[in-house]
Amino acid sequence: MQIWAHGSTVLVVGSQAPRAPLNKSIIDANISQYWRVSVVDLTASTQSDLAELVNSSVAKSGEVIAAEFQSNGRGRLDRTFEAPPKSALLFSLYVAPKRARSDWSFISFLAALAMREVISKDIKDKVSLKWPNDILIGDRKVAGLLAQQIGDGVIVGIGLNVAMSADELPVPTATSLALAGSNNLDRNLLLSAFLNRFADIFEAWDSGGDFLEKYRQVSSTIGRQVRVEVLGRDSIEAEAVAITAQGALILSDGTEVNVGDVVHLR
Question: Where is the BPL/LPL catalytic domain (predicted)?
Fold first, then answer.
């Protein structure tokens, strides 16, 4: 760990070891006081842990739980996943918006925008967002997000593949920052950079800002022919043409999709 001082500004730089442990001191030194970060070695799910704190009125807006390992991590549609210890950045955050509750479903899109900005700085391949909440490098998934409205706010859970090798990937269509050639593999600095960027985006959105165009510009789904698969329903094939301020996907046949899996056809 290195500490650099410039005037009154102090930046704490983490270890460059790809699987260095999460370090609360490094994270706290690089984020604003809005965030309160807890680091745990092992948990079933940061999402469930944070939900329990919210329901108990313990967690306030800005609460973050990050874990070295999750034994029961879950994604959208209650899918489970497991990453080797210290190979991924796994965390959940809680925010309490001022905007109308009907707009809260867009918060996960804001988080995806923030994470995309953070990880794309030194990656040569295109980093894009696949509806609803996957982050792709090329055509491979590097991160997934999960959001749930709870109490007076929203919990967003994020899993980012950082140092995974090819044989550690959960599925053949996944990738990691290491495999994509990124030099930005310090999870402490990745989390810090994300929280700082997300705070800026969230504050602007919560004050009435519109991020639809920014999302459209980095979407790999809008403008593509897609197949939408929803459990218990017939799949739909059409062109994805837009998303709404609430995060719904609009298809060329007029269908508004709020939940489902999207397959890019071409």
Answer: 26-206
